[in-house]
Fold:
Amino acid sequence: MAKKLYVGGFPYATTEDELRDYFAQAGTVDSASIIMDKMSGRSKGFGFVEMSNDDEAQNAISMFDGKDFQGRSLKVNEARPMEARPPRSGGFGGSRSGGSNGGFRARREY
Structure:
């Protein structure tokens, strides 16, 4: 069974091919993906590598966690399922819902 690993701390210029090739030293890499920022299209400096089995995943963790990769120290551990997050509010970062609790109110002209 394949095991998904979280990999963080790599340089923003790292490609998925470079990540795949690096982790291939620990075993068979099924996939490598880098998480990209939606707005800028740039790497966020972390991603996921899926190894073909649990033994190779553990080998990759012991080989690469805390080690230097392209001048940066990697953080490698078993990926956890994504936690559910509450929906975002209207963009004001709080309870400003536009109700009658103060704030701007357009003046009506009759």
Helices lie at 16-23, 54-64. The chain has two helices and six strands. The CA atoms of residues 46 and 92 lie 28 Å apart. The longest strand covers residues 43-51.
